[in-house]
């Protein structure tokens, strides 16, 4: 093929553009086309009356639906696309968004140079096309404007019949009277065909270049201009040579029109065209699908997801799942507990994997929490003033009615501190505490923290302490966020502005800090220094669920691994499967220190504790270290009475009877009035919620009352 040099080109020859403006468009019979031109000329000739008739004809044009449907988009916190959804008829069509001005300039230079000036039909282009048809005896170029192309795309009309062309002209004239040029260009950018079920510049840019069209190279912009003229025939993945020829013609025209320089055009022509169709973005795909279901009709759904952290989290989950095989999946929730914003949420290891039920969102699935609820029982016991981290307790075979739980390794440690019992996740000590606190109260406290137990029967039993109820992974993260926030919870949300602090605390900040301090002392599985993250693992009955939940001073995360169908995974333990993923996740986050102890925290060894706190004794049992009062008048708490509800923000007057002075009054385990010679004291109001008031006399005898403040 001989390449002729175009006028004005100084460097190596480039393919000359077709100056006619016709680029593989409509092929109509030249005689019929001439009739159309003649009819338009006749209208102009007859002047005013026919002009008015012509205007009325245009005004009576029945317009198609101009609100072109586009797919719903789910966006990350930085505005980037996480996942897009097809429109109802299965087409990929997205709102144009920001488009590189270079593409617009190339498009008008190639398709419609007088786009900004004509009223929908370009008489000069039509006369030129007609003259070329007469001169060459065949159709050389068409006279379609961008507005006429929009008219055809809106109605999906034919291109080869003169009746269809006349309809496009009439509709184009009407569109120009109802829409601005920007609105017409927007319609073209939405509707331009790119082959198969892909329409619009934005979908095509994501498909071929894997990026938004807001910044394009000259070669990329030219390809997006060239493809709609013959989208199937020029598909780069099937006919790359034809795609390149068409693209280079657009580049040559752009250079001739001064849109780009000759050097830029030559460099762009040297670039290969893409030959692989890329997948549309699918960041947090299950979360995105859930949000679309929850927001029917929404076209843009904004989220708090951090795309960088989300991709890293997805990679961690996929790697951990592959290492286990055996149809094992995994899930993860990460949030900023200061704001309640969810930053990453991975519902499955591989959302397209059928054998591991990748379509199930395991962040929302109800599963056994294993031992991950134990910290809340300890928090209540500390808050009630019936225990302290250094309190001694017996880890020995114990029957609770007909139930005799065992430790995970079927061994018993004898006398241990509650600190050791929680770090080692012993079962007997926590069930003893739960029996004292009460399973109903435990369930109510968990509910206040955002953890909703699903149980068999209406009344919770002691077994909830060891995982005998169902919760979701997102709820576990919510509950641990309350621990991280000093006992007061916050709703976690993936949508901006939806998180709200919970009104009623789970327990006081001293108890929350004590639990946090204990959980931060466990040795991390990855060799990370202890003390940075407070964490707890859990394994459900039969090795069905492996969990790890933790937090630092800014973030809270929960990890689950197992099989979505609930079948056991032999050898699966939370500490071995889920905990490494948890700490790998914290390794990619900023290190934010855990909070210091509140000023009122009692941080002393066991020997310095008040006598009743040195060794745990359940109701009806005497503490081994507490001497019984010799006086017949035993110590009693008289006001407020046990179970009282007070509506006050003022200080509370606490009164006791009996015992021997001096008296010490505690609020939620923290000293509130010391060395009182009378069995009464004015105690600072601890704020709304449950509180336990305790009085201890000189002999170590104690009495307490649980109250609720409004």
TrEMBL record:
Q: Does the keyword Glycosyltransferase apply?
A: yes
- EC number(s) reported in the record: 2.4.99.28
Keyword list (alphabetical) reads: Carboxypeptidase, Glycosyltransferase, Hydrolase, Multifunctional enzyme, Protease, Transferase
Q: GO terms for CC? A: outer membrane-bounded periplasmic space
Q: In which pathway does it act?
A: Cell wall biogenesis; peptidoglycan biosynthesis
Residues of the Glycosyl transferase family domain? 97-253
Name all Penicillin-binding C-terminal domain ranges.
Answer: 626-707
Q: According to the UniProt record, what class of enzyme is this?
A: transferase
Q: Keyword Transferase on this protein? A: yes
The protein's name: peptidoglycan glycosyltransferase
